[in-house]
C-alpha cells in the first residue's frame, strides 16, 4: 500500500466562524492509501488543545509509510489490528492515527463495493439530524445567524465565562430549534444549579463541558445539582476515558480526530450505551470526508454535531449534503464522498 499525506487550508464562512477569535483558516491533513488500483482517503483536523499541528501530523504519517507499505487489508479485523500496531509509528498523534484509520476503512469498503456504514455496521446509513453551532456573537450577528438557521431542528450555542443567557434567549425566540449549550470548560465560577434551571426553562436539551477537565473532581456534585444532563467533551478523549464517565457526566461527545479515528469511535459509542450514558459524535472544522466518517458513528449515537463542512466556504469534497440540519449520507462506496472538481 502506498501512503500520501498532504496539507490543505480550509476557510470558514465569515458569518459562521465558531467564535470572534476564530482563525480565518485552518490547515487539515488529507491522506490517500492506494493499492490494487483503489484509493482510500482519510483526514485529520489537528487541534492545538491537544498539541496537534498540521506539520507534526503530516510528519508522523510520512514516518509510517514503510509500515503501511507492507499492509494487507482483507477485513475489518485487519483494520482494527493495524490501528493498534501502527501506534508506535504515530504516537502521540491521535489525529494522524485518525487520518490513516479512515483511509483504510474507505479503501476496504471501496474494494468491496459497499459503504463504510455497511462494512462497519452491516446496514445502510440513515439520515442524520445534526446540531449546527453558533459561536460567541453580538446581537446583530446573532440575528443573521437565526435567519439562516430558521427551520434547522438542532442548534448548539457556545458560551464563555460570562455565561450570558441573552444569546440563548434570542435564539429561542427566533427559532423553533432544540438548543444545547457548550461552555468549553469556562464555567468554573458559574452557579451550575441556577443556570441549569434557567436553561431548562429555555428548552435546552443539555450542557456540554462546563468545567475544565482539570476540575473533574467537582463534577459529581454539579451533576447531581443540575436540572439538565451534562455531557463531557475534553474530559472524555479516548476509549479508556469512557469508563470514568458514570457519576461524572450524563454522557460524552466523541470526536474522531481526538480518539484516533472510526475504529475507537465505534467502540466508544458501544461502551457508552452499555454504561447507560448519552452519546454524541462531534467535529472540528472538517471537510465532508471527515464528516462522512462521523456520520457513520452517528448511526450509533444519540446526538450528532457534524456541521463542520457546512461551516466551510471551500469544502474540497462533495457527496454529503446538509439541508435544514439533516445530513444525507451516500450509499457508497466507501464514505460516499469524492474530491470536488
How would you sum up this structure, described in words?
By secondary structure, the protein is an alpha/beta fold. The protein has helices at residues 54-63, 65-69, 76-85, 87-90, 94-112, 116-121, 139-148, 166-174, 192-201, 219-225, 239-242, 256-259, 262-274, 288-298, and strands spanning 2-10, 26-35, 38-44, 128-129, 132-134, 154-158, 178-182, 204-208, 230-232, 251-255, 278-282, 303-304, 317-318, 322-323, 326-327, 338-339. The protein has 2 domains: 2-113, Enolase-like, domain 1 (2-Layer Sandwich); 128-339, TIM Barrel, CATH 3.20.20.120. It is globular and about 60 Å long.
Short description:
The chain is α/β, with parallel strands linked by helices and 341 residues long. 36% of the residues lie in helices and 20% in strands.
Beta-strand percent range: 15-25%
Determine the structural class based on helices, strands and strand pairing: alpha/beta
Helix content: 25-40%
The best one-word shape is globular
The CATH first-level class of the largest domain comes to Alpha Beta
Number of helices: 14
For this structure, what is the CATH homologous superfamily of the largest domain? Enolase-like C-terminal domain
Order of secondary-structure elements: EEEHHHHHHEEHEHEHEHEHEHHEHEEEEE
Mean pLDDT: 94
CATH fold description of the largest domain: TIM Barrel
CATH architecture of the largest domain, by name, is Alpha-Beta Barrel
Amino-to-carboxy terminus distance: 25 Å
Could you describe the largest sheet, including whether it forms a barrel?
8 strands, parallel
What is the total number of structural domains? Answer: 2
> Largest beta sheet: what is the strand line-up?
5-6-7-8-9-10-11-12
What is the radius of gyration? 19 Å
**Low-confidence blocks of residues:** none
* Total DSSP E strands: 16
Amino acid at each position: 500500500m502506498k501512503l500520501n499525506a498532504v496539507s490543505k487550508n480550509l476557510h470558514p464562512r465569515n458569518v459562521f466562524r465558531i467564535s470572534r477569535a476564530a482563525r480565518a483558516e485552518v490547515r487539515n491533513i488529507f491522506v490517500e492509501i492506494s493499492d490494487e488500483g483503489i484509493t482510500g482517503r482519510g483526514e485529520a483536523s489537528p487541534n492545538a488543545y491537544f498539541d496537534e499541528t498540521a506539520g507534526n501530523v503530516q510528519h508522523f504519517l510520512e514516518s509510517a509509510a514503510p509500515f503501511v507499505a507492507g499492509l494487507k487489508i482483507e477485513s475489518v479485523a485487519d483494520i482494527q489490528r493495524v490501528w493498534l500496531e501502527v501506534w508506535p509509528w504515530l504516537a502521540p498523534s491521535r489525529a494522524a492515527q485518525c487520518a490513516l484509520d479512515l483511509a483504510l476503512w474507505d479503501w476496504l469498503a471501496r474494494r468491496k463495493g459497499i459503504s463504510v456504514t455497511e462494512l462497519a455496521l452491516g446496514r445502510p446509513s440513515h439520515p442524520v439530524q445534526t446540531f449546527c453551532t453558533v459561536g460567541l456573537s453580538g446581537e446583530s450577528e446573532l440575528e443573521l445567524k437565526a435567519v439562516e438557521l430558521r427551520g434547522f431542528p438542532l442548534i448548539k450555542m457556545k458560551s464563555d465565562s460570562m455565561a450570558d443567557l441573552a444569546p440563548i434567549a434570542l435564539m429561542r425566540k427566533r427559532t423553533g430549534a432544540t438548543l444545547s449549550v457548550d461552555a468549553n470548560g469556562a464555567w468554573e465560577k458559574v452557579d451550575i444549579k441556577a443556570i441549569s434551571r434557567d436553561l431548562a426553562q429555555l428548552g435546552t436539551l443539555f450542557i456540554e463541558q462546563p468545567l475544565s477537565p482539570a476540575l473533574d473532581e467537582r463534577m459529581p456534585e454539579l451533576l447531581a445539582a443540575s436540572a439538565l444532563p451534562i455531557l463531557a467533551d475534553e474530559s472524555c478523549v479516548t476509549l479508556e476515558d469512557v469508563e470514568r464517565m458514570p457519576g461524572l457526566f450524563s454522557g460524552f461527545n466523541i470526536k474522531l480526530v481526538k480518539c484516533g479515528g472510526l475504529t475507537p469511535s465505534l467502540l466508544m459509542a458501544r461502551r457508552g450505551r452499555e454504561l447507560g450514558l448519552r452519546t454524541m459524535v462531534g467535529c472540528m472544522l472538517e471537510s465532508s470526508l471527515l464528516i462522512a466518517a462521523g456520520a457513520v458513528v452517528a448511526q450509533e449515537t444519540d446526538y450528532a454535531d457534524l456541521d463542520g463542512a457546512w461551516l466551510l466556504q471551500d469544502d474540497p469534497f462533495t457527496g454529503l449534503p446538509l439541508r435544514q440540519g439533516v445530513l444525507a449520507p451516500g450509499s457508497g462506496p466507501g464514505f460516499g464522498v469524492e474530491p470536488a472538481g
